[in-house]
Amino acid sequence: MSLKLSTKQLISIANEFGTPVYVYHAEKIEEQFKKLKEAFKNSNSKFFYACKALTNINILKWMKQIGASLDCVSINEVMLGLRAGFEPKDILFTPNCVDFEEIEAGKNLGVNLNIDNISILEQFGNRYAHSYPVCIRLNPHIMAGGNYKISTGHVDSKFGISIHQLRHIERIVKTTNLNVTGLHMHTGSEIKDVNVFIEGLEVMFEIARHFQNLEFIDLGSGFKVPYQHDDPETDVNQLGAKVAEAFAAYEKETGRKLQIWFEPGKYLVSEAGYFVVKANVVKQTTATVFAGVNSGFNHLIRPMFYEAFHRIENITNPKGAERIYTVVGNICETDTFAWDRKLNEVREGDFLVFFNAGAYGFEMSSNFNSRLKPAEVLVKDGEPKLIRKPDVFEDLLRNQIEVL
Ligand SMILES: *Cc1c(COP(=O)(O)O)cnc(C)c1O
């Protein structure tokens, strides 16, 4: 089963709250979370929602209610998590390229710290020694089917500490008496081959031998979700079975009981999100037919930024004859959402919906072209509720200081 909002609901929300509008489906998020819990029921697992995907405070509160923990990449996300009611022990702070003060701020708030830089590790050890536990973010340089080689966690990545620097890490841990309780890796996004995680796990098990106080191994995220009808999704059941098996074997061999952590972002919220826009103009040129909508990459940047594919449907003319369109936004720069896409005939005023809009949609929006950010609506128990007002003109001037 896969929960969805109906076209009727989406049209009614677009009429009530206006367009463009982001719509999130609470029960779909819960469904995804339950799938993970079920898949890993034979492991001692903990799931930290990687909230950079979508941080509306209501989404954070909902994650807390359904039993998720929280992964944060900035101190502000940590503070949002605390505001949403998460206990510090259920927050993991995984920043990259921040200064030592930001790490210390995380420590002062009592959250789990994930350190991904040798120099920070050393400073932390010098200052806090054994008094505050840390997790170390590693770059495992994984290659499918192989040993400690390069591919997914590519060698040029700015993230993590290379596993080839293990001796250096060990020296710091020993000389500063650091308390290392976790090892972490996060190698990328859209990983559909579960063996990548298992290989990562084997690398982590190997490295775990060097740390006596270890309590957990964190395999990060990168679970793939389907973007098109026939798209595969990471097989979490298969992964869950393999992880349980690997942990059981490890425990048998070493007598150590470790917890497994994951940090799903996209997996929890991508499919729960819809972005509804209105077709402003249909423009026939010599080469193509453009459907120009009342939005742009300032609201949904993934197609322009990552060449991401978002399925689009014309929800107000579902029986219209299918035609090929290039769907574009109103930003004064190349602003294409979709090339040569088959849609039911688009008429000016029709509502188009973008699917998979929950992750990295609103979150990456901006006011480019002095356009206003859209509203966000949460549907729970069939009831749509406004959870963010759309920007108004004054928001554009907020924080500006007129000195002329
Ligand atoms: C972005 C990120 C995630 C989430 O990745 P998804 O592909 O959205 O699941 C998890 N962990 C860390 C450290 C991240 O930076």
Structural features:
404 residues; alpha/beta; TIM Barrel; Lyase, Ornithine Decarboxylase, Chain A, domain 1; 2 domains; 8-stranded parallel beta barrel; 12 helices; globular; binds pyridoxal-5'-phosphate; amino-acid biosynthesis; diaminopimelate decarboxylase activity; PLP-binding_barrel; DAP_deCOOHase_LysA; lysine biosynthesis
Please count the beta strands (DSSP E, at least 2 residues each).
18
Number of helices: 12
Largest sheet: 9 strands, mixed
Mean pLDDT: 95
How does the helix and strand content classify structurally? alpha/beta
CATH class of the largest domain: Alpha Beta
Helix content: 25-40%
- Fraction of residues in β-strands: 15-25%
CATH architecture of the largest domain: Alpha-Beta Barrel
Shape label: globular
- Could you say which small molecules are bound to this protein? pyridoxal-5'-phosphate
Distance between the termini: 60 Å
CATH fold type of the largest domain: TIM Barrel
Q: Give the full name of the CATH homologous superfamily of the largest domain.
A: Alanine racemase
What Rg is obtained from the alpha carbons, in whole angstroms?
Answer: 23 Å
**Number of discrete domains:** 2
Question: Uncertain segments of ≥5 residues (pLDDT<50)?
Answer: 144-152
Question: How would you describe this structure to a colleague?
Answer:
By secondary structure, this protein is of the alpha/beta class. The protein has helices at residues 7-17, 26-39, 57-66, 75-83, 100-109, 118-128, 166-176, 195-208, 236-254, 266-269, 302-306, 393-397; strands at residues 21-25, 45-50, 69-72, 91-93, 112-115, 134-139, 161-162, 180-184, 216-218, 259-262, 273-284, 289-293, 312-314, 322-328, 336-344, 351-354, 375-380, 383-388. It has 2 domains: 26-269, TIM Barrel; 273-393, Beta Barrel (Lyase, Ornithine Decarboxylase, Chain A, domain 1). The chain has 12 helices and 18 strands. Strands 1, 11, 12, 13, 14, 15, 16, 17 and 18 form a 9-stranded mixed beta sheet that branches. The model is unreliable at 144-152 (pLDDT under 50). The structure holds pyridoxal-5'-phosphate. The site of pyridoxal-5'-phosphate has 18 residues, from helix 10. Keywords: Amino-acid biosynthesis, Decarboxylase, Lyase, Lysine biosynthesis, Pyridoxal phosphate. Its EC number is 4.1.1.20.
